[in-house]
Fold HAD family hydrolase.
Amino acid sequence: MLKNFIFDIDDTLYDQMDPFRRALTEVFPDLDQDRAPIWYKKSRYISDTEFPGLAFDPEGIKQMQIKRIQAPLADDGIAISSEEGWAFQEAYQRYQKDLTLQADMRQVLDLIQAAGQPMGVITNGETAKQWAKVETMGLTAWIPADYILVSEEVGVAKPEGEIFDMICQRMGIQAEESVYFGDNFKHDMVAAKEAGFHTVWLNHRDRDFDGVASYVDQECADFSEVLTWVQKNLN
């Protein structure tokens, strides 16, 4: 029986393409904006691959943030300077302060709250930035602040199993009675499954990986499918 519902934040509770596209339009208005989904997907791959090793290295994170827009554009033969890359990052961060909780995910949180089931968050990122997102989306209306773990703040990042053990200890729950929702296959699905959680993969960027059947209990192609799954599986 699933009793506890734990969520990732980025590209799970809100659509991360929106601030990316808005920053791209502002900083590089002459580029082909129809390429944004491709550049975003490549950018996220760089973040997902490199962030865990840089989680507690601010300068390393800054260089990665520049690289994750430089490299996708370079693949299309577009060269930008480090200064332009950082200008994009600053715009991206500014638009993230104006993000909105995705409508279907708001319904998910409402349903779980109405059922009286505990909810929590595990998110990788810098403390101030992730808590700003929590505040902007008003997540503490559904999830107690004590049940929100930010990697920099707690000193460990996904995919390390310790952070999943930490949320269980913090909430007083059992992993086998809990489900984790996330968009990242390795850091969310593989890590959560290895920690003993049930897993729901929001694969709305149509990523393809080996071993999905071993680590994913439910794959959802978009936010609405997550809502449908919760409606069917909420006790």
Notes: The first helix runs from residue 17 to 27. Strands lie at 4-7, 119-123, 148-150, 178-182, 198-202, 218-220. Residues 99 and 136 are 7 Å apart (CA to CA). The mean pLDDT is 94.
